[in-house]
Every structure is written in structure tokens, then in C-alpha cells.
Amino acid sequence: MSTAFPAPTPRAGAPRVVVVGGGVLGVSTAAHLARAGARVDLVTEAAFASGASGRSLSWLNSAGARSDAYHRLRTVGIDRYRTFAARTGLTDRVRFDGGLTWAGPGESYEERHAHELSIGYDSVWLAPEEVAAWTPGVDASAVAEEGAVFNPGEGWVDLPLLVEALVEQLRAAGGEVHTGAGRARPVVAGGRATGVATASGATFDADAVVWATGPRVPRDLAELGLHVPDASPVSLLLETQRIDHPLRAVLNTPRVAIRPTPHGTFVLDSGWSEEEVVVRGDGDHEVPGSTIAGLLEEGAKVLAGNPRLEVTRRGVGPKPIPGDGEPVVGELPEVAGLHVLFTHSGATLGLVLGEFTAREVLGERVPLLEPFRPGRFAAATV
Hints:
Strand content: 15-25%
CATH topology of the largest domain: FAD/NAD(P)-binding domain
Mean pLDDT: 95
Number of strands: 22
CATH architecture of the largest domain: 3-Layer(bba) Sandwich
């Protein structure tokens, strides 16, 4: 089945839009804009998915407690992935085999499970001995004695492969792609974004600009005198060798999170391992060998059969998280025509925020985005 969508309907006086960012949010927005008939230039600093999208666990979920508005947006985001997989047939890179999680020592997830049931989120409480029947591939002895929460509607996406498919759609719809352009900056005149200039010397005129540079968004906006609080930590993702193993769900355990990939490998991350990454003054990162070995060991402990895991790839760098934890999406009140995307859960929100941002660039106001406008920070400082 082709990954293409129907050809765009030509729009009289279609706007020219420049989208900056080669991760899932930027590429998704560009593809949606092109399919809607806009003239699109997608500009990237380096290769596609070479930043946060290339080192994401990419768990599709809205588990746990969060604001009602954020939960609603995430559930809509998950729905878009189901539609995308059905329309494109790309079920190798978008899977819905559930998610399993359990609490650490001295903690309990009973309240979490009760909260999920109260808001209609699909949530099943499992005793350790019941886990294998719901989601094979887990070592039952590693599960907390009180039990675990299984969310059957959750899944995962392989973001680099998704980005690849979206770029194909963008090009098929007539969009232009400019990779390796170096760092970009918005061109602003008279309080309006009029284009983009890049370190390579290339410039792009625009009627509107979409800024989706991941964890660099706060820095880029600060150069315009605009403040967006930033809580982006360092992320570390390991990918293992190919392994024949029955695990298909996403695991989120106290010491390691794991998901399968379309390549027959696993990817792993954790909070504690990220804290052990050494950040150099020049922006480089050093990952101790003991950290890598420890994360692989923790992964083996929760997998059935406790297989020996070997690392074949690692990704390290900042993970975009706004200061208040909520997405930052929409046109900047201080700069007309400059739309920003900065959020955690870029995987879960990748398709829906691309769609909604495209609709707003083309003149529509999307009510679901109202709680997440960047103007909330300007209001807080008055």
C-alpha cells in the first residue's frame, strides 16, 4: 500500500510557508500543509530525525494523571496514529500492542489505575502471574508484588521511519525539502515573520513560518527577546542487537523502559541513566560505560528469559520539555506569522499537532490548542 494521500486541491493565492525542523513535528506540519495546498519549504539543520526524534522511546500513550486538556489532546493524537496506520498500511512502524507498567519499591500504582478507569482510559490491573496471558515476553518475577497496570490501547511508533514516510508525502504533494542548511533564524520585519535565513547562506521568503527545532526552541526565541520556560533534560536511548523475543508491548518499569522496533531490536531508556550523562561545556556529552552496561542489565532483568543484550547504537542529547510540562503550540503574539511547536511527547502528538498547526497557519483557530498558546508565558510575567 502506498504511503501517499490524495493529491492536494490547488489553492488560489496559496500561502508560502517555511517550516524549520527535521523532527516529527516539523515534518508532520510540512506534510499537512502541502496536502492542504500550501507552498511549503521544509528546512533542516542536519539530517532528518537527527535530534530528539531519533532518540525517543516513542511510547504512544496518555497514561497517568495530567491536565484534562492535555489528556484530551493526547488521546486525539493516538487516534490519528490509528487512522494513519490504516490508510497507509505502515503497521510495521506504528503498533498498538499495549503498555505495561508497575511501581517501584515503597510505591503503589493502585491510585493510578483507579484514576485511569475514572476518565475512561483503558486500564487493566494484573497480578504478576497474569501478565504473560495479556502481554508475553515479560519476566513475571520482575513485576511488583502488588501487580501491574496494562493499558491495551497504547502503542509505539518508530519516529525515523515515520518521518521518512511523511517526507515522501510532502514531496508527493509538491513540497520542497532543504536538508543540511545549518542553523536557521527567523527573519522579522515590522513585527511579522517574513522568512528564514540559514547558516548555509540560503534564505527563504514566507507568508508564515513554523518553528519546530525541538529543545532549541527556547534558545531560538530568546534571540528574538521572547521567553519560553525550558525544562529540557538530557536523554539517553540505547538500541540493542537484533534478538528473537516475544515482547511486543512497551514496558515502563522502575529501572528501565523498553520497546521493540521494526528492525527486531529493542530500544531502552530510564531516568536514572539520563542523570549519569556528563554534559560538557561545549554542549558535548559523555556516557560512562558503567551506565550503558547498567541499563542493558536492567533491561535483561525484565525480559522473559533474561537474554544478554548488547548495544549497537546510542543517542544522547536534550529532550524537549517546556518549563510547565504542557505543550507550547501556536502563533506568537509578539511576532505575527511565526508559529511555534515545543513539547514533550512529540511522538504521541506528532501527527495531530502537525495537522492542527497546518490548519492554524491557513487561517483556522483550533479550540483544542487554546490552553497551550505561547502567550500564556507573557501573561504570567505581567
